[in-house]
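Friendly challenge for the regulars: who can give me the structure tokens for this chain first? No prize, just bragging rights.
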Amino acid sequence: MASEVLKRTLTNGVTNSESVVLNGVSGHTYTILSVVVTETAGAAETFDLFIDAGGGGTDTEVLSDQAVGANETFVFNDRLVLEDEDHLCVQLASSGNVDVTVSYLDQTR
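First reply, four minutes later:
Bragging rights claimed.
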């Protein structure tokens, strides 16, 4: 039976390694409502937000080198749709530290 549920993920300590902030599952469609990136180490950072289609390693950038100031918050609230095993990922340009909150609608088919 199909369902629609509002959910969120919390990922603390994102740095310059690829971090999967939403890991898609087969049979689901995800409508991303917002992505909140908060810098927590006291140093300005830049980050990439991207979709790894099917979790296969082919990345499509949504935001590239997006700035977030020291101890500041950046909010991305354009809608994105992920399907099945797509991953939503964040990666910093340097070895900083940010927290990422993703709000989304999880629809099963």
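The chain has no helices and nine strands. The longest strand covers residues 28-39. Your move, everyone else.
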